[in-house]
Amino acid sequence: LIHNLAAMADANAARTLGDAAKTLEPFNDSLAKPKQNYPANTATARLEALEPKDDPRVRLLLGVARYRADQYLAAIETLAPLVSAFPEGSMERREVVQVLGLSRYLAGHLREAIVDYDHALEIQPQNAAARNNRGNLKLALGLPGEALQDYDAAIRLLQTDGLAGVASPYDLIVCNPPYVNAQAMRELPQEYQNEP
Hints:
Blueprint: H1 13-23, H2 25-32, H3 40-49, H4 56-68, H5 72-79, H6 91-106, H7 110-123, H8 128-140, H9 144-158, H10 182-187, H11 190-193
């Protein structure tokens, strides 16, 4: 879809970044979309009452609830000590560093957030959302070339034949075509332009 983003010159970065942002829109909500209809303050209050208060699993849930309640500094304070509380490479540690990275980003601590995303990607390198979010951070820091590398990696991770490993009694599954902009539609072969 977007070929060799990382090799593009900085002069083309603005146009290319716009294309990449559109392609990766489903993941951008983790950084930009308001968290709607989530009773985070209630969850936070309930988690604060749980015992034992020093249980890392409870602290992790509390940190996530504080993030969801837009209490980013409180989430950072809760989550930062937990990085070493879970085994190296565990999904719990990945969740701690990823939510910590989101909280730091939203609190304006961009460089620290990149370190958190680096750690999350060491644990789970195939995490397209984390690569996209780290690209957003690098773009916010004025590093468009590095942002493009993360966007390119996220797009490559998203490009897949999602049905290849699915056992199915069907020989063919018909789906809606991908949604494209007007320019891409004009560039399609004629037979595709006759589709409803």
